[in-house]
## 1
Amino acid sequence: MTFSPELEARFAKLLNSYPPGRQRSAVVPMLLYAQDEIGCVTQELVEEVAHRCGVTALQVDEVIGYYSMLHRKPLGKYHVQICTNIACQAVGAEDLWAHACKNLQLGNKEVSPDGLISLEEVECIGACAWAPAIQINYDFHHQVTPEKFDRLMQALADRTYSARPS
Amino acid sequence: MAEVINFTIDGQKLQAAPGTLVINAAKQAGISIPSFCYYDNLALQAACRMCLVEVEKTPKLQVACTLPVAEGMVVHTDTPQVHQARKSMVEFLLTNHPLDCPVCDKGGECELQDMAFRYGAGFSRFREAKIHVDEKQWSPVVYYDAPRCILCYRCVRICGEGLGVSALGIGNRGAMAEIVPNRGDHLECDECGACIDICPVGALTSGAYRYKTRPWEMEHVGTVCTHCSNGCKTTLGVRNGRIIRANNRDRSGVNGEFLCIKGRYGFDFYDHPDRLTTPLVRQGGELKPVSWAQALAVVAKRFTEIRARNGKFAVIGSNHTTNEENYQLQKFARQVLRTSNIDHHRTGDVATLLDALQGRASALASTADLVNAKAALVIDSDLAQEQPLLAFSLRFNWRINQGHVYAVTPGPVREDNYATTVRAEPGREFEQLQLLKDRLAAEPELVILFGAAIKGEDIRRLVAFGDSLGIPVKYVALVDYSNSRGASDMGLLPDLLPGYRPVSEAGLEPGLDYDQILAATDLNALWVVGANPLSRQPLASQDAFVVVQDLFLTETAQRADVVLPAFCAYEKNGTVTNVCGDVQKLTRGPKTMGPKPDLDIIALLAKEMREDLGPTKVADVFAEIRNRVHGYNLPLVVIESGGAAQAVPPNDRIQIQSRPEVVRSAGNTLYTSGTLGRYSPMLNSVLEAPGALYHDPHIAPFVAKGSVQVDTTEKYG
Ligand code: SF4
Ligand code: SF4
Ligand code: SF4
Ligand code: FES
Ligand code: FES
């Protein structure tokens, strides 16, 4: 399996950062970086990572089953993650989630037909102080009301979205 | 660090070596701490929290299974807080557990049942609907019922660490976590069932046993596996005279808890519909069922006749029959038939090894040595395929005792994953050995295991090589079947009597060997006991009167004039000798009607011919063997109590007169077992069968299967 030269360089650095015989430690970061480049975790990727880290494909599968940020199916260009854990829930996250599903016409882990947006209900993302919080790809958005959510989605659709936290 | 650590558990002042875990220290003091995920000789998991204990000056409860004892530590295992914790853990484990004990295979011997009974509460605070997932079949052997699983990871660890197969893993997480097989929806593995037997609950069940019985309805009979030469002890679960299962959960015997697919599931040949149940005599060209009396009379009459005119007899013995049977058979051949033409399919050159060692008793490795030796060297054997227990033992030794393992083989072997392995084409092993010599010589001791490719002069070369290392070296001549070693020790050889005495001592000349018997054109009678030599080659003597004792109508039996149906090892009492010379006891399990033990058949024939073969009962024959066969004067109490005692090698040179060419491996894989394997539905049904050996071009990997006709038996015979 071939990756971009940048990703290859990253892999090389990763595999070197663990003591000999501990290359399996690189499984999670390798999967995450590769997922960003490929769009999801394919079977081919599983086998490649297993091979490079000296573990079985089944052991890589275990990791993927465990971590919710590793996806076997392609996500939308923008992956919208809404936290409904306790702090966010206390200030309206469940309403926000219902609102998002209704307005986007998407369920949990579904992707819009144009491939632009995917939606996921997630556990605490560590932004409780600014609840209710959501995450779009790697960026956080704080104190998200349904109105603010709609503005963000509109921006995504208009291609005017800026990743700057708001 | 101090040599011993002083600590207190439940008020008892105790001492233990540094690193001892609290759970084990407590056990040694007779205090039992409940556990699920902790398992001897597997990596620590701390997954189940069943073993929580109170440790003074530590605010929270601690897991006893990962906590090493420390100087001055004070542990309490019997406080209200600990009791409450256990109760809660059982309640938690039962959150999604279906509690279908009344239909579960494990009911009655389930660790979760026991724990719930002992420590649990009679109610649960969980009112939510239980998560249900349908049961899955992963192979003909392995079934998985996720709701019953308590996620202790024992199965994952025994498969990965224990066997080196790593076919099981964990999928998902939290309440949805479950065990997953390596091929998505099915397993591709050794199909050994170790995961099933180690499972504390009924989450993993076997195709052979599931829903057939309850544990308390069976009689549990300890005996020895009848497939390969490794001699694993197995416990047969017998109900109404039939074998329902085989396992080794009591972990006694040379194999600990190890059994391969053949030992756990390959017993089913014994009640195959094609099993012979009555004697057959050829009448008008066809084999017709007759009574035992009639069949024995025919054989006795013809044998007597042929002997009277000085006709030529030959006897081919078995790799599966007991020592007692082999001993009486050779006695019959030599005393009654007055012939030296007796042999068996030799799968390893035991005699030459014993001769080369010239009585050095300490130079024969016992089965136990394989898990203790500082280093071991495997030559020309694909252990994981051909000698499953030995492969497991060497891996165990490497894993637990830091033993070093070396292998010189012509193709890839499982030992490549952890051992120092080098490739050498057959015939060039010694060049590679020279390259390894310095490393081997630096080991404190070594066990050398060699396959059938090393025979005759090569064995002497190997022993010279071992001597040149300047360290204590022990040897194992690898043989293939459950009593191959016993056949050799008991004198099923044309040139050697029991105990490797020369035939001249019995006033005889060396006779024909296996190949010569089959090739002779002038045999008048051939008696084949538990072997199928004609599967590969016709009998050259057209007119010979052929008597066959076997379980099935094999190619050889089809050529017979009289066929006498015999018991298999699971139906017999007696002793067998494993690949390392360890003698163990067989105990009769199922009560099959119709066939007879070979020992009785031999005795009845002698009686019919009015000959005296001496003792007829198993114990009496074994007593004679102990008296007369060098090396077999073994402690009766060890053998009677189900232990293993190693036969001692002869202390003189051995007058070997036969050719090493007759020594040939049977080429069995993990999923084949000669004739027995052909009639085992389970062995034939797994996807992996018949398996492939690196060095054997005769076995194509994954030949069409599902039919008992796939013959990987005695391919050279
Ligand atoms: S049957 Fe044996 S090899 Fe297969 S998964 Fe279970 S433990 Fe592993
Ligand atoms: S299947 Fe059995 S052994 Fe494996 S994790 Fe579940 S309970 Fe433990
Ligand atoms: S290793 Fe050999 S003796 Fe042990 S269970 Fe398997 S076939 Fe039987
Ligand atoms: S609970 Fe939502 S960010 Fe922590
Ligand atoms: S036995 Fe200690 S946590 Fe399972």
## 2
Amino acid sequence: MKKFDLSRRELLKAGGALIVSFNLFPAMDLLAQAEPGAQGMPDPKQLDSWIAVAQDGTVTVFTSKVELGTGIKTALAQIAAEELDVPLAKIKVDMGDTDKTIDQATTSGSRTIERAGPQIRQAAAAARKELLRLASQRLGAPAEKLTVKDGIVSVAGNPSKRVSYAQLIGGKRFNVTIQAEGKAGELKLAQDVKAKDPNEYQTVGKPAPRVDVPPKTTGEAVYVHDVRIPGMLHGRVVRPPVINTAPASIDEDSVKDIPGLVKIVREGSFVGVVAKTEWAAIQAAQKLKVTWEKPPFQLPANREELDKYLTGNKSFTTLKAGEKGDPAGALDKTKKRYEAVFRWPFQMHGMIGPSCAVADVRGNKATVWSGCQGPFRTRASISSLLKIPEENVRVIYHEGSGSYGRLSNDDGAEDAALLSRAVGAPVRIQWMRQDEHGWEPKGPAQLQKLRAGVDADGKIVAWEFVDYSLPWTVAATTTLLASQQIGLKSKVPGQGNGNQGGGEIYAFENTKVLAEEIPWMKPEPIPLRTSNLRAPGQLSRCFASETLLSEIAADLGVDPIELRLRYLTADARATDVLKRVAEKSQWQRRRQPAEASNAPTAKGRGVAMTRRAGGYTAAVADVEVERATGKVAVRRITLTHDCGLIVNPDGVKNQVEGNIVQGVSRALYEEVAFDGNAVTSVDWEGYPILRFPDVPELDIVLIDRRDVSPLGAGELSTVPIPAAIGNAIFDATGARLRDVPFTPKRVLAALKATKPA
Amino acid sequence: MAKISLKVNGQSRAVDVDPAMPLLYVLRNDFKLNGPKFGCGLGQCGACTVVMNGNAIRSCVTEVKDVGGRAITTLEGLGSVKKPHPLQKAFMDEQALQCGYCINGFIMSAKALLDKNPKPTDADIKEALAGNLCRCGTHTRILRAVKRASGQKV
């Protein structure tokens, strides 16, 4: 069957009669190849910029938020369906085309449901209000007498008097102005329009099968990797997995025998190849002989050097999560003091599908097809890279591989744009595995120093938590890889790696929770560049603070849940997730560690909790530790989750499950290897992640709070997993782990260092 | 370059390609099949999995000249949204994916498993899918989907 080969001429012939099916989505892209900005930019104050009703009654919602595999396409559709009283199946969501949508901020930080949810809700409520006004005129009944069901407006008590949304406005514009204040994530829409009372919700709060799932199981979904443009060439970048200097020489003869090679592109220290086929591009990139200049500096060559770097350099900014009283003074007065240092490695986002984009740069205009998290952010970076106005750049979103923060920074789009400009044709690029492992911006390495003091009554009266973190050198405010390579320098040192999770939820009398951001921006691009990785920095901070708390509990002979509850006095939702995880996991209150046994496999359980961006979660891990080898098996994770009002319960559950599994993987296996020049773990053997046989049983309790606005579920529940596992290992063996990941080697060393009970 | 005849999803077709090129690129770029995905090019992640003569193979490291006349089945060869294969239906029913980039590999590996072992145990399924990586962490749903597809209680 001829699926994706429709030419532009054939399409134009098809015209308005084009039938939309999954198979024809790429064809729709061809239509979308119109000049960037040709239709004028949508205005946030126009209702038509947000919602359109087609002649068949289908409602399209336009949003710059994008489906990253987290289910927001379905959840946002539920929100719109709810306000409009339209069946969910009649809602379409058009995502991430910068020429068709308003910038609602990058899809990151688990903020879509929290921020864009209300934007869509209010736009839909405004549309409903206008539809009722039109229906009132049509039916000759006051708007307050009208009811809506399945997109049909009828007069209460006289159902024969009815009119559908399609009849009222199908295929036409609303031409209604709505209130719009603020920008991007802070944009407030139609605040004067009253939305539904959450207690009346019919669609929001019920499990809805995700709309993106079926075509993904059949190959009919069109990922950015599957976008094909007429005349498209294939590109590959050439980057060493070491500090990226300028090429001293490029031996063009090394690739002259590759059939179909179009061009070797060099701009500054950016090197790439373009070919007629993907295979030719791959071979050319592999075979091209480039001699790179020697790096003018070295990176810390191992973990010890990195720790010295983290603690021996002055921070450029201090982020405070909590400060009260005088912890240093209180510590001096306490008899019992605890001090500990915790370390967290560089970790990878580890997209299964490496970076990919298609760019078509023509003169001073560019169209980019990308799987990025922030189409408007990509638009800005392409504009800066090519030195053309933002409105001359159009970014069209297609789903990519799950990115977990990696595609907040769209390196691939810049590569494609440079190559396309160099050859004057559309170019598709995809990074090879070593490019992605080598050059993806890593989740930053961290180190925490903690001090706590307990008074004579066994009360924690002092808590001092300092996180020393590398910042995100790759962020909205800095330049991306290709930009750096052609000489666009970042003007700022980066963005902080977050500050939550250092024990600020506990009501200690004297407390200080700080995060110091240590400068890491280098004059040349480095493979250990850094960026936001899911729940940025918080797994590490939570690991440190929740480990020390359990350590204090053990020392005081108090059950670790009991100890936490003593300091959660001011926070009912925190108390609730903790009590409920105890209940669900059938937690028996006792002191830890468990009584020593000589069994070859030691069993234990540990607890940890956190608050993130207004959501709460608590986890209990059940683990087994093989004493002879130090191998840790996580058997079960029980977790409670409160993200406010739940929009799609099965969608949230899916997210929570994934968060837990990824958290187990990061706790047990994941550490980027590096030396003074390079990242040395450049494939899945060098950087293993969790595989099927090691997946634990999951037991999840979702707490639905109708009185709390909906929050995201994309990050929260991954946070307490490493801490809960570490605490369970302690319970099982009495050994304390302060370094992640808990590899057999590290566990064995901790076992050896632990005195027998 | 060489003319090579391939049998993919029941249809035979000749392509003129470098015989050392991995099968994945023929499937994606010549046959325009989007099911098999490039993940690593090293046979480590399983995103490119197709079924060849009943076995789940990594198309990213299988040279096209080594395929010969053996029958290749891709995700598209199983079914469609309108007419899904029982495995695809089970993955839909269990909502067993998030981003879905890896899911081709899981479904195709499960297809090869179920053809040989129609009632696998949980351990059989985990073992058969141990070579496929999923970064979103949907493993427990995938396990249920494969059991469901095999007609066993979930």
